[in-house]
Write a structure and sequence with these properties.
Layout (H helix, E strand, L loop, with lengths): L11 H5 L1 H19 L13 H18 L2 H6 L3 H22 L2 H8 L2 H8 L5 H14 L2 H8 L2 H23 L11 H24 L11 H8 L5 H9 L14 H59 L2
Helix pairs in contact: 2-3, 3-5, 5-10, 5-14, 8-10, 8-11, 11-14
Length: 317
């Protein structure tokens, strides 16, 4: 059974994470109750737009797919699935949250006492830029990743921290809370996205061009089994280990660890380029539209001034 479909031996709970599904459903229900029933209780509250609701539902489906569906257990078997998780959750879901959550709700969230200082950091764009990329790079240092993969609370905490930093990372370019005059200019927003990609490149390059496998939790049998405890119920894992059915990730795939590692780095880099291409297109379109609107406004004012001057001149002619 040297194929990925063999993960069914870990059971339903490990493959489909019903508890995480319940959490995602709970968050989704709270979102729609807030935006469709309770929105009048918020300053500036308004009815939910179809696009916002659809985007939020899509984000929740993606979140469950990455951390609840079999992709999660596969991320402990193959490094390439781990990097797929990283790219989708931190570089796709995080920025989409700014379009899925209405601006009045974002304003309420940002003004909460416990979060106000956190989001204040994003008013200096270099700080979230350095924080996210720095923590992301530290996370993928082999000794750090191997340790976190074998400690459930720390692993979960680190992923939550990275997601919060990803939200902070995209605040300077996508937030609809700050007054327009406090936003970066269109050109600086484009450069900011390029900077994110540039700072992610060293970590991806290290992973892609390493001459040997970097992570014990994807190569060493004991470390791998310890990491699998994060997503497989202990009773199931102990039973399989006792029967001698599994010894390491090689049971599920013929892909070599170095090839899997290189594939993971490439997936991260390619998905990043795709996601950022859409961001750049969106930012460039808005920048161009705003520039045209400003030009039209200047032209209108000039024509209005010329008309008033002409009328004044005619009065005294």
């Amino acid at each position: 059974m040297e194929n990925l479909s063999s993960i069914s031996i870990f059971g339903f709970i490990a493959n489909w994470s019903p508890y995480f599904l319940a959490f995602v459903v709970f968050i989704t229900v709270v979102y729609f109750l807030t935006t469709k029933k309770w929105y009048r209780k918020f300053e500036g509250g308004r009815p939910l737009k179809l696009k916002e609701g659809s985007l939020f539902a899509t984000c929740m489906l993606l979140l469950y797919a990455m951390y609840g569906a079999p992709v999660d257990i596969l991320s402990h078997i193959l490094f390439s699935f781990h990097m797929l998780q990283m790219a989708v959750v931190f570089l796709l879901i995080a920025p989409l949250m700014y379009f899925a959550i209405p601006e009045y709700l974002w304003k309420y969230i940002v003004e909460l006492p416990v979060l106000k200082q956190f989001f204040a950091i994003a008013r200096k764009p270099l700080i979230p830029l350095i924080l996210f990329n720095g923590i992301f790079s530290i996370y993928h240092i082999p000794v750090v990743l191997d340790y976190l993969k074998q400690n459930a609370p720390l692993h979960s905490g680190f992923n939550i921290l990275l997601f919060m930093l990803a939200i902070l990372l995209f605040y300077p370019i996508f937030n609809r809370v700050e007054p327009q005059e406090n936003h970066m200019g269109g050109l600086f927003k484009l450069l900011y996205v390029f900077a994110i990609g540039a700072l992610l490149t060293p970590a991806c390059a290290l992973i892609i061009f390493a001459g040997e496998p970097l992570y014990n939790t994807y190569t060493d049998g004991d470390a791998w089994l310890s990491a699998m405890a994060l997503c497989v119920p202990s009773g199931v894992l102990d039973g399989l280990r006792g029967q001698g059915l599994i010894s390491g990730p090689e049971y599920f795939t013929n892909t070599t660890p170095i090839m899997d590692q290189q594939t993971g780095g490439i997936i991260m880099k390619v998905l990043q380029e795709i996601f950022f291409a859409f961001m750049l297109g969106h930012l460039f379109y808005n920048w161009y539209r705003n520039e045209r609107r400003d030009e039209d406004e200047v032209t209108r004012r000039s024509m209005e001034e010329a008309r008033l001057q002409k009328e004044l001149f005619n009065q005294y002619r």
